[in-house]
Specification:
The protein is of the alpha/beta class. It has 34 helices and 31 strands. The strands form six sheets. Strands 18-19-21-22-23-24-25-26 form an eight-stranded mixed barrel, surrounded by five helices. A five-stranded parallel beta sheet has the order 2-1-3-4-5, with helices on both faces. Strands 7-6-10-9-8 form a five-stranded antiparallel beta sheet. Strand 27 (719-723), helix 29 and strand 28 (743-747) form a beta-alpha-beta unit. Mean pLDDT is 82; it is low at 707-716 and 844-859.
Length: 859
């Protein structure tokens, strides 16, 4: 037996490039009584150190610079041939464990590791190592025991190596692999030297708990074999499925597990083949009717539990019998194979396509609440058939009729769904073929409306029904109109002017956006030239660009052709792209935008903050301008979160040398707030609604004479905002501060207060606690976030100290006044509040500072 003292005196080497890991293992070993532990951060020294010190165990990290753990084990290999050397691998990557065992490791632990597990593995491996050393060097009792076991095991040798099955002998006590047959080496692809001494648990032969149970001497001895199924690793190949018959033998007190494993991969392959013959169509390889119905039942059950929907598309080829009769059965089969491949390409990855027989196919589609997904897939199938099939160099064109039934709208039964989809398919054939129909009448109305819209859109460009409106933008620095954005409109006959939200998504889905996008660019360039000829001057026009124009069109060629055709300067054209279109193919997009930027065209990101672009990519794109999305502008004067996002975008853009435009500005307060925060431009209904080209020309000419948006004159240096829901009390407060030469602003609610704060530079706020819809404290808490420089004071009839303290903490108040108060006291404290503001934020030309200093000194 190996004593604990012998184990604690064993020599251990810790190899890791991270000092923290080395220190942790040194600490664990030292606290467990190990007295001969060395360590190194340099893996190239390990072989030399072992040759000199002859370590009993090496704890080795796999991922190290210069030489990784595999290189260390290769360097140790010549030394290990002379003697058994346990190597315990420490790794964070489970995928490397088998490779590590193949390279010579005896065991592994994963990071982050359990200290108890690590110490247990170290102790077990050292015990095996010391047993080997005793066998070799000292001829101790263990050597005699092992030799005795060897004599017993040799009785099995001839039988073991004569069989094709794999035989494994495991010592349940030491949990070590004692011997293996030649058949085991052939099955697993490892040499005998690689397998002997390996941990059987790592090979999948057993688990730790089973070995501990079998090692229990209180359990019965030799007994009948038990059969288990397992999967064993194979070197350089897929794992092998096996059946193992285990039998326990007791030899000289040692409990030996004998396992006979046979490869069952051929049997399983035959079973799979039988399953395929029973479940898959032999011609196309698709699920047949039996498997399709089984899959549909499972999909319906899953949707029932999760509240989802399932659509069944029943697809029949039109006039296939005529084609089959004319070309022959052989080419007819080839046509079905080609069609099935295209059909699989149309189906989403998670959904199932099946062949129900003849020229009839079906598709199971899991959907969200909207049935548009089913219609989109039906359109994809129809589109896939438009490309002719080539059969012996002869092109053949087909179409398909498609019926759609939806769970749970049409039926809760999977079989009925297929039947109803078949009925809808027949209706599609009766309607003229090459189309699709929903089984539910209501859905048909929706789908027919979509089809009608799609067909009308295809004709809109040719019929001249599309036109551009233009929404002006204004510079917050000068107040002048800085440009316009071109917005697409559709003058649909019988429907009037149609807004983009109703038809642009359809153009995106059908690919029409590529042709329409090129038309928009050309129409915008034509209008720029027209405005210049009419005397309106040079007008910069922003045009929205779709991601599909990058992917499917030739955006750069379209722009160059339009600029040349209408003889306009590239600097007058600006492209607006969403974050999503930028990230569709970022590398290609960067190349195209860089060339357009070099040409002189400006680039802007539209709806910034609502997409998913990477800031690392944003830095690489040649961007000139960011547009803050309307979602963050709408409540920018009242919502601290929206204000913080807007300010962050402005700050980030300016730090990257980009301009910022806020869209959706609808009030003077929003405009004033954004100007104060150094936003560069605005766009929205406050400035102008989208206008026809003729009205834009008039606005541009008038803008030369007037600057309605120019920054106003300097405001009063001392501005006091009074907020009180009581009109009479508010008027009394305003009259009280009239003689003090303040600019006094009043508000009857928090909403009016936010508007005043956006429009004016307010220095001191005096607010009543009781306000409609929002308390004074809640109002000042938001003001604290959005306007931290303003001095905030509250008026309240509440005298509870806890309430007063909470109010001060929440609003960071300068003063809390309770009723009643004296006019002189209130006026004096407001003067002190202004004085405090100027002490913190004051300027040298502040006219009242000396007077107030004198007053404060006298007080």
């Amino acid at each position: 037996m190996i004593s604990p003292e012998q184990i604690r005196r064993a020599r251990v080497l810790v190899v890791d490039d991270q000092q923290a890991n080395v220190d942790l293992l040194d600490y664990l070993l030292a606290n467990s009584g190990y007295t001969r532990v060395d360590s190194t951060l340099d893996p190239t020294r390990v072989a030399a150190m072992h040759a000199e010190a002859r370590y009993d165990l090496i704890i080795l990290d796999l991922q190290m610079p210069g030489m990784d753990g595999f290189g260390v084990m290769r360097a140790l290999a010549p030394l290990e041939r002379e003697d058994y050397l346990p190597v315990l691998v420490v790794t964070a990557d489970l995928d490397q464990t088998v490779a590590a065992l193949e390279a010579g490791a005896r065991d592994f632990v994963t990071k982050p590791f359990d200290p108890v597990e690590v110490l247990t593995r170290i102790r077990n491996m050292l015990e095996v190592r010391l047993m080997h050393r005793q066998l070799k060097d000292h001829g101790a009792l263990l050597e005699a025991t092992v030799r005795a076991r060897t004599v017993e095991l040799q009785r099995f040798r001839s039988a073991m190596d004569a069989t094709a099955d794999a035989i494994f002998l495991i010592d349940a006590g030491s949990k070590a692999l004692l011997d293996i047959s030649d058949g085991a080496c052939r099955m697993l692809g490892f040499s005998r030297a690689q397998l002997l001494g390996a941990d059987p648990c790592l090979l999948g032969l057993a688990n730790k708990a089973e070995l501990e149970r079998e090692a229990d001497p209180a359990r019965a001895g030799a007994r009948a074999p038990t059969r288990v199924a397992a999967t064993l690793p194979r070197f350089g190949r897929e794992p092998v499925p096996v059946e193992i018959d285990w039998q326990l033998q007791v030899l000289d007190g040692s409990r030996i597990l004998i396992g006979v494993a046979r490869d069952v991969s051929e049997r399983q392959a035959a079973q799979r083949r039988l399953h395929e013959l029973a479940s898959y169509d032999s011609l196309t390889g698709l699920p047949n009717r039996t498997l399709f119905h089984q899959t549909l039942n499972e999909a319906v059950a899953l949707a029932g539990r999760g509240g989802g929907r399932v659509a069944v598309l029943f697809i029949a080829l039109d006039r296939f019998k005529t084609v089959n009769d004319s070309l022959g059965a052989e080419l007819g089969d080839e046509l079905l194979r080609q069609f099935s491949s295209r059909l699989v390409g149309c189906a989403p990855a998670r959904d199932t396509v099946g062949r129900l027989g003849g020229d009839e196919f079906a598709l199971i589609l899991s959907m969200p609440d909207d049935a548009a997904d089913a219609a989109a897939v039906a359109n994809d199938v129809r589109q896939a058939l438009r490309t002719p099939f080539v059969l012996r160099a002869r092109p053949t064109t087909l179409s398909a009729s498609i019926g759609i039934a939806v769970y749970p709208d049409d039926s809760l039964d999977a079989g009925q769904l297929v039947m109803f989809a078949n009925t809808a398919m027949a209706q599609a054939k009766e309607a003229g073929r090459d189309g699709y129909r929903f089984f539910t009448a209501g859905m048909n109305v929706q789908v027919l409306a979509r089809l009608d819209l799609e067909q009308a859109l295809r004709q809109a460009l040719e019929n001249g029904e599309l036109l551009l409106y233009y929404q002006p933008k204004a510079s917050l620095d000068t107040g002048s109109v800085s440009g316009v954005e071109a917005l697409l409109r559709w003058q649909r006959p019988g429907h009037g002017l149609v807004l983009p939200s109703a038809f642009v998504p359809v153009m995106e889905e059908t690919g029409l956006i590529v042709r329409v996008g090129a038309w928009v660019i050309d129409a915008a360039c034509r209008q720029i030239a027209q405005w210049s000829a009419d005397g309106a001057g040079d007008v910069k026009v922003a045009v929205n660009v779709s991601g599909r124009q990058f992917a499917e069109g030739d955006l750069e060629a379209d722009i160059r052709a339009s600029l040349e055709r209408h003889a306009i300067a590239p600097a007058l054209l600006e492209l607006e792209l969403t974050e999503g279109s930028l990230m569709t193919d970022p590398e290609h997009t960067i190349e195209v935008l860089t060339r357009l930027k070099a040409l002189g065209i400006s680039i802007a990101i539209d709806d910034f903050g609502t997409g998913y672009s990477s800031l690392a990519y944003l830095k690489r794109f040649p961007i000139d301008k960011l547009k803050i999305d309307i979602a963050f502008v709408r409540d920018v004067t009242t919502n601290p979160d929206d204000a913080a996002i807007a300010l962050a975008i402005i700050g980030m853009a300016h730090s990257l040398h980009m301009r910022v435009i806020a869209e959706g500005v609808e009030s003077q307060a929003q405009q004033a707030y954004l100007r104060r925060q150094r936003c560069d431009e605005i766009q929205g209904f406050h400035l102008s609604h989208p206008l026809p080209a003729g009205e834009v020309a008039g606005m541009l000419l008038a803008n030369r004479e007037a600057r309605s948006l120019a920054p106003g004159a300097g405001q009063a240096r001392q501005t006091l905002l009074l907020v009180d829901a009581d009109g009479a009390e508010l008027a009394a407060l305003a009259a009280l501060f009239g003689p003090d030469d303040y600019q006094v602003l009043t508000a009857l609610s928090a909403e009016q207060g936010f508007e005043m704060l956006a429009l004016h530079q307010v220095h001191v706020i005096l607010c009543e606690q009781r306000l409609p819809g929002m308390s004074g404290i809640a109002f000042l808490s938001k003001v604290k976030t959005m306007y931290p420089a303003a001095i905030r004071m509250i008026l309240s009839a509440e005298t509870d100290p806890a309430s007063m303290l909470e109010s001060i903490n929440r609003g960071a108040l300068y003063r809390y006044y309770t009723k009643p108060w004296t006019d002189a006291e209130l006026r004096d404290n407001v003067r002190r509040a202004f004085h405090h503001f100027w002490l913190v934020h004051g300027t040298a030309d502040e006219p009242y500072g000396a007077q107030r200093d004198a007053e404060d000194a006298a007080a």
